[in-house]
Structure formats: C-alpha cells, structure tokens
Design a protein that fits this description.
single chain; 388 residues; mainly alpha; 77% helix; 0% strand; membrane; transmembrane; transmembrane helix
Amino acid sequence: MSNLVNHPMSQSGKAPVQAAPAQLWRSLFNQGLVDNDSPPAMKLSSPWYIIGAQMIGGWIAALFLLAFLLTSMASIDNIEQSILAIGILITLGCLTYYRVGNHNQEFILQMVFAFSIAGQLMLLWGIHDTLKQTDDDIIALMYAVVFALHWWLIPHKTNQFIAAIAMVPCLLAILVIQQLTQLVLPLLIVSLMLVWSQRYYWPKCYQRMRMLGYALGLNLLFANFALSDMGLWIDLPQVLITFDSRFSHYLAVIMVLLSALWLIHNIFKQLSSHLIAPTNTTQLRQVKIISILSAILISLLSIPMAGISTALLMLLIGFFYNELKLFALAIGALVSFIGLYYYSLHISLFDKSLWLMASGVMLLLIRWALAVSVGKTISNQEQRHDIQ
C-alpha cells in the first residue's frame, strides 16, 4: 500500500495509479496481511439491466413452450390424466434441476421457475379432477403435501415462499372442513412464534424457516382482515367467513398479548445485559413497565379493531429478529387496520375526530413517559461520566 502513496502521479496531485490485482495481492501477502499468495477467483456480476432482460426472456420462453405443450394436449381424449402426468413430469424435472443444476444462468433459472409454477398448477388441477369424488379434506391434504415438498426440496427462495404461502391455507382448510375453525387463529399465532424463535436452531433450514415465517405472517394478517368490518363487506369465500368466531378472536388476542410480553421481556433482557449502573437498570425497568402497559392497552383496543395486536406482534418480531421487511410489513398492516376501522365506524365525522384526538393524546402521553424515562437514563449516564 505504501507503493501507491509514494507513486510519482500521486505526488503530482493527480489520481494515483491503481496497481494490478495480482500485484496488490502480492504486496498484501508480503506484508503478512493475507495467508494465500494467489488472489481468490473473482466472480463477475452482470449489470442489473442484463439480469432483468434475462429474467423477462426466461419467462417469455417458458410461456411459449407451455403454450405449445397445452396446444398439443388439446387433441388428447383423457386430458385430466394427461395434465396430471405432465404436471408430475414437469415438477420432477424442475426439482432435478434445482438439486443438481447450475444456478448461475439467470435466463435458465427464471425459465425453470416459470415451469415449476406451471407444473404445480397442472399437478393441482390433475389432483382435483382425479379426487373430486372424494372428500375435500383429502384434496386439501394432497395440495398441502405438494406445496410442502416444493418448500422443502427446492432451494430457490421465491419458489419456497410461494409454496409456503400456499401450503398454510391448505392446512387451515383441513381444520375448517373438520369444523375446528376456533383453532385457526391460535394455531397461526403459535406457528408464527415457533418458526421465528426456532429458525436459528436449524441453520441448514434457515432460508426455508424464514420463508415459512413470512408466509405465516401474511396468512395471519389476511385472517385478521377477514375478521374486520371491511372483510365482512367483501364477498369472501365461506372458508374465510368461518374465521369469525368470538371465542377464537378473544383467544387469539390473549395469545398475541402473551407472545408480545415474552418478546418485550427478551428485548429488555438483552438491553439490561449491557448496563452496569443500577440506576440505569431502574430506569430501564420503568421503560419496560410502560411498554408492557402499552401492549396491554393495544391488545384491549384490538378487540373492536381486529388485527391491531397482531400487527404489533409482527412489529416486535421484526425488531427483535432484525427483519426489516417484516418490520415494514407490520407498520403498513398497523396503519391499514386502523384506517379500515376508522372508515367502518357508523358514526358522524365529529365523533370520529374526537376518537382521533383521544388516540393522539394517548400516544403523546406514552411517548412523553418513554422520553422522560430515557432522558433520565441518559442524564444519569452523563453525570456518572463527568464524575469519572
């Protein structure tokens, strides 16, 4: 590195001449900064517009091939069994490529992804036509098995997310068919907490667990949307209307509150581990009490406003596990549920404005209490620093 500083061009005020990668690596090796005398192989990445063109080209090529395949199948008499067989063949081919193929070519990867989605749709269509004389729970179970295999065997992130977000409703549909609708919301909450809390214990399945966690969160938000007044206005399928059970709703609010309190406890436990002075610990305990009371208040508000406490829980999960996308999704869901409840109120605009003012005053009081507690903590730290 000193050769670059003492270069004649750098002394003349011009930009320093960059050494060749091999020479730079050799100088680092001579100084003992690296162990290997040869530089590692550099993987060149394509520009974003080249990658975008390859992705679009892969989907167009896959659609043309699928159109040709479906046109060729139009003359077959027993089209149901043919669709099932072709769906199985396409699915097996895509699974084979994902397991043993080269994933560096974006064009082929996107084309296989499109074929995988089409193969799953054909497979589901064939299963429905083959088992349409049987019970619906068997069909839902077969759908869940298909999506579970794709979620588990395919290493492609987007395909795992699509399989996970489709697998969860299939499993919930089995509960609805068996008239166990009161277990839908509680099981979603328990599954959400288990997946996000256990994903670090399964490092080989980290990506799969993460995609499943996002899928559970989206399904939980959609179930709460079905419970809201806005969801009742929309002509939703009967399987979603069955979520509307008061006992299930109250039980879900309690479970969300307990989960939120557990997360708050762990968050402040980590914060307190970095504090030494007992005064700071006392102030942190006051902030913790305010946070617990706020969580209880929001849970009570979630009884008339479905989804508020669920969005709060996902907000805490995103903060605790450093998931920025989940954090942003929870903020959007929180604002959406509040807005949906506001527009569904059958009261005058004056009464709505009073409710908004009361909510604003309550939030300002919570913010003031937190600011006072945090300000005392910072002030105590500064006084201790000045004394030292």
